[in-house]
Write a structure and sequence with these properties.
Layout (H helix, E strand, L loop, with lengths): L1 E6 L2 E8 L7 H9 L2 H10 L9 H24 L9 E3 L10 E7 L7 E8 L7 E9 L9 H20 L14
Parallel strand pairs: 2-6
Antiparallel strand pairs: 1-2, 3-4, 4-5, 5-6
Length: about 180
């Protein structure tokens, strides 16, 4: 596993790349959210969780919401702004704010199709917080443990948290990270 910078000259948005993968998890989730065939397959497999949408409506809504979300994040990050980091909220209620690493989620723009981007907030009061994106999901059920694809995201959060703690990863190391091309 590697922690990778997503944007040159922005040390507040990072992602992980697992093993021999070519893409970071940030790139991978947006690739999935823009893949019509993969989305049709996903919604066909999870059709029972769709409340009021058809599979075709869900696919189109994901593609629209993902484009908006990715543009908003990347436009802010490329401009050097960090305001979007405040949109990442704690994954669990009442997190211990004294912790160096806090599990976070970012809600997508659509109420009907709940896109989620997951990451770990690296607290740094001097340099400003950093989000390390670990993955994302289309969350169609209340609890992440209810479906394999969201349970996988919980497992990835846990794996990255253990890695960061083991490495004692800090914001001082970000300048030296590889940049995703």
């Amino acid at each position: 596993m590697e922690v990778i910078r997503i944007i040159d000259r922005n040390n507040h948005l990072l992602s992980v790349r697992y093993g021999d993968a070519e893409e970071t998890e940030f790139s991978k989730i947006f690739t999935f959210w823009n893949d019509t065939e993969a989305l049709f397959s996903f919604f066909s497999d999870n059709a029972a969780d769709l409340k009021t949408l058809t599979i075709q409506e869900a696919v189109l809504e994901v593609i629209d919401a993902a484009a908006y979300l990715e543009d908003r994040i990347l436009d802010n990050a490329e401009s050097g702004l960090v305001d979007f980091l405040q949109e990442f909220k704690p994954l669990h209620l009442n997190p211990d704010s004294s912790q160096k690493y806090i599990l976070n989620k970012l809600y997508g723009p659509s109420k009907r199709i709940p896109l989620r981007l997951y990451g770990i907030r690296l607290r740094d009061y001097a340099k400003g917080d950093t989000i390390i994106v670990t993955g994302g999901a289309i969350k169609l059920t209340r609890a992440m443990q209810d479906r394999p694809h969201t349970k996988l995201e919980l497992d990835k959060l846990d794996q990255v948290m253990r890695y960061l703690r083991h490495q004692n990863f800090s914001s001082d190391e970000i300048e030296f990270l590889e940049l995703e091309l």
